[in-house]
Amino acid sequence: IKKNMVIDLVFLNKYGLFGLLITTFIAYSILPFPSEVAITAFSTIFNPVHVFIFAMIGSTLGSIANYYIGNRGVKRILKKNSKINNKVKKLFHKYGELSLLLFSWLPIIGDPLIILAGSVEMKFWKFLVYSTIGKSFYFIVLIFLGAEISTLIF
């Protein structure tokens, strides 16, 4: 455990908040990568407001990449089968906005939801607002957890 903590502290010191931005970008793009530990760890050392801002920028950029994967790639596949395309659009328009707001931050579930939002041509500004609001609540919880851990450790 101590060895992992040393490695994590070296990473934090070497890359700083830019490292958090890259970590959250990777985690919220199509690549499965856990950002929760990084956000919590960074909030034990850095200003929580800065952690929130850098985590939001990285995760939003990663989500935008997923949105465009859906909009430019998956949409073409769905258009080839109009029956499936119509079903997907109908379901997404019924439940998609709420599910994007509530679940876009979840690992494994969030990425396909955001790709789906792009593939059914959800308005970009709506996607951006819903996914940003959903992630912001989650990040606040993680940052608060990190701040509480830092009071126990330091």
Q: Which bin fits the share of residues in helices?
A: over 70%
Would you count the extended β strands for me?
0
Class from helix and strand fractions: mainly alpha
Poorly predicted regions are 1-7
Distance separating the two termini: 17 Å
What is the helix/strand order?
A: HHHHHH
Average pLDDT number: 83
What is the radius of gyration? 17 Å
Shape: elongated
The percent range for strand residues is under 5%
Number of helices: 6
**Biggest beta sheet attributes:** none
Structural features, described:
There is one protein chain. The protein has 154 residues and is mostly helical. It has six helices and no strands. Helix 1 packs across helix 2 (36-45). The longest helix is centred in the middle third of the chain and has 33 residues, at 48-80. The two termini are 17 Å apart. The relative contact order is 0.15.
Please describe the topology of this protein:
Blueprint: H1 2-28, H2 36-45, H3 48-80, H4 82-103, H5 110-119, H6 124-153
Helix pairs in contact: 1-2, 1-3, 2-3, 2-6, 3-5, 3-6, 4-5, 4-6
Short description:
86% of the residues lie in helices and 0% in strands. With 154 residues, it is an all-alpha fold.
Characteristic key phrases:
single chain; 154 residues; 86% helix; elongated
